[in-house]
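Exercise (ungraded).
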Amino acid sequence: MKVGIGSAPGKIILAGEHSVVYGLPAIAVAISLRCRVESREIAEGITIDAKDLNTVSNYTFDQLRSLDTELADGTDSIALLVYKLLPDKNRGVYLEIQSDIPISAGLGSSAALAVSTIASVMDLFDLELSKSQISELAFESEKIIHGQPSGIDNSIATYGGLLVFKDSSIDLKELKQSFSLIIANTRIERDTKKLVSGVADLKTQFPDLINPTLKLMGDLSIEAINSIEENNIHKLGQLMNINQGYLDSIGVGHEFLSRLIWVSRNNGALGAKLTGAGGGGCMIALIRDNREAIQISDKLKSMGADVYIASMSVEGVRIGE
Ligand code: PMV
């Protein structure tokens, strides 16, 4: 029996989180942590077997046709996506998901799942879709879960590499050099909406201080792109450290994140910062080699974080492998 296979990467925000909300540029990069989906035809309905979460969800087509998308969760959105793609609505699909990307950590796990699901179903039924169609479909699916996503996550999961996001427009750039990273997940839940509104409050209270800081954060994104284009890893590390200072000053830091950041720096990381909304979630550290990675990773694990050694990834969606 034919098995469809698809996979897609997660992402980090390298620079520009929060200032991007005010129309300034942010940089997102695909990472080597991926989500992989296998699909098979079954007699009827859609079954989603999330191996990492140990959950199996079953949907009949009738259920899916009457599902209220306002109330739909992540699994529902994937089932709806598969249903939409089915060429023959008389046969069902069984999906098996395996993902390296931690969920609810700001690493784009839901977009990577949507994109890899599309890729897997395309492979299963020999469907032809362009990358922009894949990204658009995943964006629709992301809207069901996240309300008003920026479009960064589905784009990165589809195209891979690096992208600059500004004023709702996405500019894809070639990533010529892959840098190595440590990603540490505090597992502290963060509320992106609350953190974004906290910055807005601070901005209202201290406009003369916060507005220039946000502007500097946008400028820093441009410098960071230059450092990548120049393949200047030391400069990129310095910029990440400066960026962390700005993020702390707008109130989105967290004590545990700071401790992980300082331990990484003190053990040889070239730079370290939080990534995404902050207030918990993940930090990233830029590293030179594997020996250093293992040393830092062991230290961060002993502090209670979940640690991943990853690299920036050129590759986006993969179909059939
Ligand atoms: O936590 P993430 O990776 O979803 O990133 C949030 C980034 C913010 O700039 C804080 C919010 C946004 O919508 O851009």
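Further reading is listed at the end of the chapter. For now, observe: The CA atoms of residues 8 and 270 lie 28 Å apart. Residues 13, 17-18, 20-21, 106, 150, 192, 196, 276-277, 281 surround PMV (CB under 6 Å).
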